[in-house]
């Protein structure tokens, strides 16, 4: 993920599954446990060195979509298989 903007230009956490977006990025395991821990610890702004609060809607939607994949199904655009 990277610090970016949502469709309305507000600061937001933006998924970067291909790891190609410019700027500082951070990794998050796509599990609800890691998500909840990062939110509880307020890790996103600190990891991305953002002074502004970051909306997490785009990232939450992305993680929810990942949860719909079944084991060993190809994930489009990543060249990877989920397990």
Please give the share of residues in helix: 25-40%
Order of helices and strands: EEHHHEE
Radius of gyration, whole Å: 13 Å
The side-by-side strand order for the widest beta sheet comes to: 1-2
- Indicate the proportion of strand residues: 5-15%
Derived structural class: alpha+beta
Largest sheet: 2 strands, antiparallel
Supply the number of helical segments. 3
Cα shape? globular
Mean pLDDT: 82
| Spatial gap, N to C terminus | 20 Å
Query: Would you identify the regions where 5 or more consecutive residues have pLDDT less than 50?
Result: 69-83
The beta-strand count equals: 4
Commentary on this structure:
The protein has 83 residues and is α+β, with helices and mostly antiparallel strands. It has a domain at 14-23 and 39-69. It is built from three helices and four strands; from the N terminus they run E-E-H-H-H-E-E. The chain has helices spanning 32-40, 43-47, 57-66; strands at 2-5, 11-14, 74-75, 80-81. It has a two-stranded antiparallel ribbon with strand order 1-2. Strands 3-4 form a two-stranded antiparallel ribbon. Strand 1 (2-5) and strand 2 form a beta hairpin. The two termini are 20 Å apart. Residues 69-83 have low confidence and may be disordered. It comes from Nocardioides potassii. It holds the Pfam family YlxR.
């Amino acid at each position: 993920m990277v610090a970016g903007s949502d469709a309305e230009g507000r600061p937001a956490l933006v998924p970067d599954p291909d790891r190609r977006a410019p700027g500082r990025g951070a990794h998050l395991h796509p599990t609800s446990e890691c998500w909840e821990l990062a939110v509880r610890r307020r890790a996103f702004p600190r990891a991305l060195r953002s002074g502004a609060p970051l909306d997490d809607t785009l990232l939450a939607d992305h993680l929810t979509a990942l949860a719909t994949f079944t084991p060993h199904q190809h994930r489009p655009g990543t060249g990877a298989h989920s397990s």
